[in-house]
Amino acid sequence: MMSSSRPLFPVVAVMVFTALSCVSPAQQLNKDDSVARPTPQYAIPTMPANPALPNIWIVGDSTAQNKKDWGWGDHFAHYVDTSRINVVNRARGGRSSRTFIHEGAWDEVLKSVKPGDYVLIQMGHNDGGALDGAKPRGTLKGIGDEQQEVTLLDGTHEVVHTFGWYVRKYIDDARAKGAHPMLLSLTIRNIWTDGHIERDMGYDGFIHQVAEQEKVPYVDMSDVEADRLEKMGPEKTAAFFPGDHTHTAPDGAEMVASCVAEALKEQHTDLAQYVK
Predict the structure, then answer these.
(1) Mean pLDDT of all residues in 118-129
(2) Among 87, 110, 249, 271, which one has the highest count of C-beta atoms within 10 angstroms of its own C-beta?
(3) What domains appear along the chain, each with residue ranges and CATH number?
């Protein structure tokens, strides 16, 4: 009998496709990481889900992002009635209130924001960085109209404003789209002094002041999270922060998301109606 010379490519292609289809979302998220990260223990939803529903947009940094870091943003969907409203996480790791705007990420969010949507804004973790140099992401302290021009490494010039100025821009832009902006206090870092965990890294006061000025909700999730962690104590809290004092493991991200939901409900915000 003559042997068949049928090419192997279709078989190989099927095998490769099958292998890829078996890769979990968590493995796909981690494929570009240089550091091994824990496998998530919770299903991460695909977002946005239903274009007919209103949206909750999450704007923040790595403490909310779900990519290389396990932030609370995607986990927040577990505490919301997603049959009535979408949760859309657009947080970006390493960004400050300034760079999220300057790099165009905020404009991308605004393209899809529609009347009746909610925008949860949580910025500040990276705003204490340098104004220029290799990582120019810092903002001026305060909430006033002070500004400073800096020269970036590529020779371009940028006018840097105060932290409060950028937060007000988020508010104004969201309102212009008919959306409801809400300001969140910052997630807690695993830093302890005399048996108490750090509750404010220096920006929550600015956030609260802008919220009062602009008459938008100030959602104090920091104290909710800090109270829980202090009840747990430093040793158990450390398990939530395996890499550093800022970024959480999946269990920690789930806990932080539940704190955001609890704060929204306890403080009788408009979003409380959607919280499970």
Answers:
(1) 98
(2) 87
(3) 54-274 (3.40.50.1110)
What are the E-state strand segments in the chain? 55-59, 86-89, 118-121, 147-151, 157-161, 180-184, 192-193, 196-197, 218-219
The residues, ordered by sequence, that sit 6+ positions from 137 with a Cβ below 8 Å of its Cβ are 94, 95, 96, 98, 99, 126, 127, 129, 130
Q: Which amino acid is at 159?
A: V
Q: Measuring CA to CA, which residue among 200, 257, 201, 195 is closest to residue 231? A: 195
Quick: pLDDT tens for 169-202: 999 999 999 999 999 999 999 999 999 999 999 9
Reported as a single tens digit per residue, the pLDDT across 25-83 is 333 333 333 333 344 444 444 456 799 999 999 999 999 998 766 899 999 999 999 99
The residue type of 104 is G
Using the structure block, give the residue that is written with the tokens 């998530």: 40
User: What are the percentages of helix, strand and coil residues in the chain, rounded to 5?
Assistant: 35, 15, 50
- CA–CA distances in Å: residue 227 to residues 72, 133, 174: 17, 38, 31
**Cis peptide upstream of residue 217 (ω within 30 degrees of 0):** no
| Contact by Cβ (8 Å): 79, 257 | yes
Token pair for residue 59?
A: 């704007």
With b meaning 16 or more CB within 10 Å and e meaning fewer, what string describes 180-197? Answer: bbbbbbbbbbbebeeeeb
Other C-beta atoms lying within 10 Å of the C-beta of residue 41 = 11
